[in-house]
Amino acid sequence: MVTWTGATVPTPTLVENTTDPQVCGRKQTLADVLVSSRSHGVENVILALTDVPVEKIPPPVPGRLVLDNRRCSFSPHVSVLTVGTVIEATNSDPILHTTHLYGSTEANIALPLEGQRVPHTVDKAGMIVVKCDVHGWMQAFVRVDPHPFHAVSDSSGAFRMLSVPPGDYTLEAWHEKLGTRRISVQVRSGATERVALEYSPAQR
C-alpha cells in the first residue's frame, strides 16, 4: 500500500483551456495527484525493484500498451513496461493529437485521424515522459524495466508484484508530484510480503 499521511488530502491541478474547447472542454485536470478521500491511498505511484540480479531476471515477455488520446488526456496516465513492449499510440478524439515520447525512448507520433493507431516498440530501459504538442496539459509517464518486477498503485493505493525471486531488494516508489521514496524489502520463498510506503506533507 502507498498512503498519504497528511490530514488534508491534496487535489489535482486544474488548468484553463482554449485549444479545441469543443472537444476538450474549458477546464482540464492534470491528474497529477490523486489521493483517496476514504483510504488516503495514493494512485499512480510507480513501484519497481531497482537491484534485481541479472541471473534472477526471467526471459522477457513483450506486451502491448494501448496509450490512448481520449477526451484530451492520455489513458493510462502512468504505466510500467518491460523492454520490448509495443506502445500503440491511439487517437479516440476527432481532432489532431501527437504522442511525443521523451526520455529513454524518443519518438513523435502524429495522430490526425480519429481511430488512428500507430505502434512503437520500446527497446531501452528508463523513464519516458509523454506529451501532446497540440494540447500542452496532456502528459503521461511510462517506466520501462528489463524485468517484470514493477507495478502502479491503484485508486486505493494498493499494488502487487508477482513471482518475485527470494532475496533482498531496494523498492523504489516514484510519483510525479510527491517525489521518490526507497525502502529495503526482503522476499522469502513461498511467502507474501506486505509493504507499506507513506508520503507526507513534509516530504513535498
Secondary structure layout plus pairing:
Layout: E1 2-4, E2 14-16, H1 21-24, E3 27-29, E4 46-49, E5 64-70, E6 73-75, E7 78-82, E8 86-91, E9 97-103, E10 107-111, E11 117-121, E12 126-131, E13 139-145, E14 150-152, E15 167-175, E16 179-187, E17 197-199
Parallel strand pairs: 1-17, 5-8, 7-13
Antiparallel strand pairs: 2-3, 4-14, 4-15, 5-6, 8-11, 9-10, 9-12, 12-13, 15-16
Overall strand count? 17
Parts with pLDDT < 50 across at least 5 consecutive residues: none
| Secondary-structure-derived class | mainly beta
Strand residue percentage:
35-45%
Distance between the termini: 19 Å
What's the total helix number?
Answer: 1
The CATH topology name reads Immunoglobulin-like
The figure for the number of domains is 1
Summarize model confidence as the mean pLDDT. 96
> What radius of gyration results from the CA coordinates?
18 Å
CATH superfamily: Cupredoxins -  blue copper proteins
- Which strand order does the major sheet show? 7-13-12-9-10
**Percentage of helical residues?**
under 10%
- Global shape: flat
Can you offer a commentary on this structure?
The chain has 204 residues and is mainly beta. Helices cover 2% and strands 43% of the residues. A 5-stranded mixed beta sheet has the order 7-13-12-9-10, with no helix packed on it. Strands 14-4-15-16 form a 4-stranded antiparallel beta sheet, with no helix packed on it. The protein starts with a strand and ends in a 5-residue tail after the last strand. The relative contact order is 0.24. The model has no long low-confidence stretch (mean pLDDT 96).
